[in-house]
Design brief:
Blueprint (H helix, E strand, L loop, with lengths): L4 E2 L26 H14 L4 H25 L4 E2 L13
Parallel strand pairs: 1-2
């Protein structure tokens, strides 16, 4: 799984695409917790960057990439994933 290359582009220089397997996804969900929420409220009031939320976004992005690679590995013999797009959705009050 670690050998699977991925890119947001639609090709890899020096490689030839021999087979397309279709569309795959990788999802991850993370809770923010009450301490992070409190810090976020103060960040909003003060107009400053919220490091705790930034760190959580980094974690959930990594988790989603791992989930995507696992999903692809489970269903194909692919060695690369192209056209990767990462989106964040927020639920509830934040």
């Amino acid at each position: 799984m670690e050998d699977i290359m991925f890119t947001s582009g639609f090709n890899f220089e020096g490689y030839h695409i021999t087979k397309y397997y279709g569309v795959f996804t990788g999802e991850a969900v993370i809770g923010t917790g009450p301490i992070s929420e409190l810090k976020a409220n103060w960040s909003d009031v003060l107009g400053i960057n919220n490091k705790a939320f930034c760190d959580k976004l980094d974690i959930v992005e990594g988790d989603a990439i791992v989930a995507l690679k696992e999903n692809v590995s489970r269903h194909t013999h692919a060695n690369a994933i192209i056209g990767v797009d990462i989106d964040f959705n927020m639920f509830a009050n934040n």
